[in-house]
Amino acid sequence: MNFLVVGPGAMGCLFASRLKRAGHEVMLADHRPERADFINKNGLLMEGADGEERVPVPVITGKAPAEVNVALICVKANQTREAAESISSWLDLRAAVLTLQNGLGNFELLEDVFEKGRVLGGVTSEGATLLGPGHARHAGRGETIIGPAGPADGPVANIVSAFEEAGFRTHSSDEVEDLIWGKLLMNVGINALTAITRLKNGLLPAIEGARAVMRMAVGEAASVAHAKGIDLPYPNPFERVLEVCRGTAENKASMLQDILGERITEIQFINGAVVREGKKIGIPTPVNLTLTSLVSAIQETYDKRIID
């Protein structure tokens, strides 16, 4: 298959390098020409349990020079619309658009830009940390689920097959909204806490205060999900978050990576989304509001931090 991976962040580098190594045609799309030039010259450098590997993947900053079967959107949620609009004018009308992004609203934003039916959604529990331009570490393995499943010979089936060939444990599902909410609760419990405490995922459950806040934040999000009729893909959300922390113990969560890099985070699409959805149906979410406010305060004051 021919893949266009939009965004050379940690997850973009991970999926692009693995798919390329498995024999698929892969291009990366980047809006920064200097970074694109660097990766075109040096390739993608991936670290993992098996050591380091450099994988040559072409990077484009404009129209793709070849046919694209699947556009995999790997940008931050606050960049989704801009990224989608940048490729919509030339992307083949037959190409599927797949988001595995964090947070709520990405699927709907993509459907605003592309025709309904072309957009696929899903979640991944793969963990990756960006170490530099085109340089990432695979920090934790997990499951990837995409949908709606569609026919046995349709695009989702082909993507599942390609992902499995690339070494990702993948299957399909028709319950896309349930999956997205299921992943949202994982991010609600982990991302903001790592950004505030600056701890790796695996340490959060061991810190009494962090564990207590995690339990309350996840509980609020689960209450909102249940009130909306969401069928979460696990029976105990808090225990599932603890499992993810253990499975990605050495991972620096994406929001922590953004804070360390002094970038805008996805807080408004994760904990902030829980607050907004809770307001719509009259469910209070004070812990998620507090986490959203704290992370927002941090990212708004990067130039005022006390260093010493």
UniProtKB/TrEMBL annotation:
Residues 176-299 form the Ketopantoate reductase C-terminal domain. InterPro entries: 6-PGluconate_DH-like_C_sf, 6PGD_dom2, ApbA, Ketopantoate_reductase, KPA_reductase, KPR_N, NAD(P)-bd_dom_sf. Keywords: NADP, Oxidoreductase, Pantothenate biosynthesis. Residues 4-149 form the Ketopantoate reductase N-terminal domain. Pfam families: ApbA (PF02558), ApbA_C (PF08546). GO terms for cellular component: cytoplasm. One of its GO terms (molecular function) is NADP binding. Its EC number is 1.1.1.169. It catalyses: (R)-pantoate + NADP(+) = 2-dehydropantoate + NADPH + H(+). One of its GO terms (biological process) is pantothenate biosynthetic process. SUPFAM superfamilies: 6-phosphogluconate dehydrogenase C-terminal domain-like (SSF48179), NAD(P)-binding Rossmann-fold domains (SSF51735). Pathway: Cofactor biosynthesis; (R)-pantothenate biosynthesis; (R)-pantoate from 3-methyl-2-oxobutanoate: step 2/2. Belongs to the ketopantoate reductase family. Catalyzes the NADPH-dependent reduction of ketopantoate into pantoic acid. This is 2-dehydropantoate 2-reductase. It comes from Candidatus Desulfacyla euxinica. The lineage of its organism: Bacteria, Deltaproteobacteria, Candidatus Desulfacyla.
